Amino acid sequence: MSEMNLLIMNQSELACFLPGRRQREVEELIAPCCVIDAEMMEPEEWAELLARHNPKVIVGGWSLPQLPDGVSWMAPRLEYLCYVPGTVRDKVSCKMIEKGLLVTNWGRSISRTVAECALLLGLSCVRRSGYWNDRMHHHGEWKDDFVTTKSLFDRRVGIHGYGAIAKELIRLLSVFTSKVTVFSDGVPKGVFDYDGVECSDSLNSLFSENDVIFEVEALTPERVGVVDEALLRSIPEGGAFVNVARGDLVESKGLLNVAKEGRLQIGLDVFNEEPLPATHGLRGCMNVMLSPHIAGPTTDRMVDAGDHAIENLKRFCRGEAVVGPITPEVYERLT
Amino acid sequence: MSEMNLLIMNQSELACFLPGRRQREVEELIAPCCVIDAEMMEPEEWAELLARHNPKVIVGGWSLPQLPDGVSWMAPRLEYLCYVPGTVRDKVSCKMIEKGLLVTNWGRSISRTVAECALLLGLSCVRRSGYWNDRMHHHGEWKDDFVTTKSLFDRRVGIHGYGAIAKELIRLLSVFTSKVTVFSDGVPKGVFDYDGVECSDSLNSLFSENDVIFEVEALTPERVGVVDEALLRSIPEGGAFVNVARGDLVESKGLLNVAKEGRLQIGLDVFNEEPLPATHGLRGCMNVMLSPHIAGPTTDRMVDAGDHAIENLKRFCRGEAVVGPITPEVYERLT
C-alpha cells in the first residue's frame, strides 16, 4: 500500500475550485497526494484505487465517485472527506459519518452569492424588470403614463430564516434604508436582540407587516409547506415574495394560485419539483421572475468553496476543529 | 390683484409628490397660496390666472402649463419656479432664467433610485437573469451542466461619470467587495484622491481594465457617441455594460453590433431614440436586459422629490441659496 491522499477532480473542477496557487496548496497540505480524474471510473476500479492508496484524506469535486459501503475496510486510514461542492448525500452515507468519518462541504462559503441572488430577485420584483424586459423584447413595447415602479429604499423587508444567507442578505440590504425584520422559529429572541436585529413574533406578522418577503429558511420536515396560500395572501397588495431557499418550504398549489392573481411580484429560484416541469403553470406568469436554481455559487465564485476547503484542510492538519462538519443531524437536513 | 402663490398639481401629483403632511407644509410655506389643477387649462386661461394672482412662487408638477413668454409682465412678482419633477425645458425658457427667474427641479433627490436601477441591471447582467427568465417562461427550459453565472463580488467595476448617481452607486456597491474605478473627464484627479476613489487615466483604460462598466456620465455635446464600438469591444470577454444615463452617450450602431455578437452582457434603460422603435434590433437580443427609461425615481420614491422641493422652499423663504438651481449652463445640458 502506497498510503497516498487523494485529490479527486477533473480539469474543469481544478480550474474552477482551485485556480492559481490553490491546487499546489492543497497538494502540499495533504502530501503525499495523487491528483486523479475519476469521472469515468468504474466502481471496481474506484474500490481498487481506494484500497491501493489507503488515503487518510480525500478532497473531491462533483466528479468524485460515491464512497463504497466497504470503504472502512478498503481504506481503513480514511478520516476526512473534504468534499468541495455542496451535495454530499450521493457521495457518502450517513452511516459512514455515524461511524466517525469527518465530512465537510462548501458550507457557508456560498452564502453571499445566494444572498446576492435574493437581492437581485427582490430588486427585479419591485422594479418589475422581468416584466419590462419581456414586454420590450417580445411585444415591441415602451412604458405608458401609468407605469408603477418601486424601490427597496425605505421599504419594510421581512426575512424568513436566520442562517448565514439571512445574515449576508441583511448586510447587502444595509445600503438601502429598508426596515428589516426577521423571523425564524428556531432562534431565541435573545439572539436577535444581541445581534441588534428586529424580529417578528410570528411568521404571520412577518408576512402581513412587510412589503418584501425573502424566504431563506432551512428546510426541515416540520417546515414543509409552512408558507401556505393564506400566508402568501397576507403580504400587502403590491408586495413581493422571493424564494432562494427550498421550494418545499412553500405550498406549491397556493403559490401558483397567488402567482396567477398577479397582485404580488414573485421571484423564484427554487421549486418543489426541479427541474420545473416544462408545462408548469408558473411559466408564463410574467409577474414571476424565474431562475433555474442558480442562486448557489456563481461560476466565478466557486473559488470561495476552494478557499473554504483549504481553510478546513489547514485546520485538520493542525488537529483543530473544521468549520461546518456534516454531522448525522446536519446530513438528515441536507437537500 | 390677489397676490397669491400657486401650487399647480392635479390630485395624483399631490398624492405622489406631497403625501401626508407635505401638501399642508408647502401651502404654509408659500401662504397665501391657491392649489390649482391646471391640466386641462387653455393658454389664455393660464395667462389670465398668472396675471390675476401675480405669484412670487410657483410650485408645479408635470401638469404645470408652460410659462408664457410674457410671464414677466403678466406676473411681475414671480421670483421662483419650484418645479418638483425633472424636465423643466418644456415649462420654462432659458431666457426667463437668464432674466433672473430662479428655477429648481428634483435635482439629486432621485439619484439613489437611478443608482439602484444601475445595480439591478448590473446584477441581472452578471447572473444573466433576463436570459434565464426568458428561457424558463417561453422555452420550458431548465439549466444544463454548462451554465455560467457570475457575481459582483470581487469583480473589477468601472464607472463612467462622477456625479450624484455615481456616488450613490459606489455606496451601493460598497457591500460587494468589488474593486471600483471611476473615470470622468471633467473631474480633477485631486477630487478622486480626496474622496478616496480609484480613478482611471482614460476612458480607454476604464473600459479595457474592468469587467462590469456602468455608464452614469452627464450628456454634453462633446460626449455624444463617446462610447463607441471600439470602446465597447475593449471590455474583456464575458464582461458587462450598463447604461442608465443617456442613450446618446453611446454610438448606437456600434452598440447594436456588439450586442448582437453576444460576447458581452448588456443592461440598457436609455436609448438614443425613445421610445425605442418597436422593430429595433436590440429587441430580441437576449443578452441585453431592456427597460423603458424607468431608472428615474420609482413611483414610491417620488416623495423624495417632494421633500427636496420643501427643503428648497424653506431655504427660499429664509433667503438662503437653494440646492441645485437650474442656471443657464445647467439648462443647456438638460435632456
From TrEMBL, chains A, B:
Record InterPro entries: D-isomer_2-hydroxyacid_DH (IPR050223), D-isomer_DH_NAD-bd (IPR006140), NAD(P)-bd_dom_sf (IPR036291)
Protein name (Swiss-Prot/TrEMBL): D-isomer specific 2-hydroxyacid dehydrogenase NAD-binding domain-containing protein
GO cellular component labels: cytosol
Domain D-isomer specific 2-hydroxyacid dehydrogenase NAD-binding: 123-295
Keywords tagged on the record: NAD, Oxidoreductase
Keyword Mitochondrion annotated: no
Keyword Chaperone applies: no
GO molecular function annotation: glyoxylate reductase (NADPH) activity; hydroxypyruvate reductase [NAD(P)H] activity; NAD binding
Organism domain of life: Bacteria
SUPFAM superfamilies from the UniProt entry: NAD(P)-binding Rossmann-fold domains
Organism: Pelagicoccus mobilis
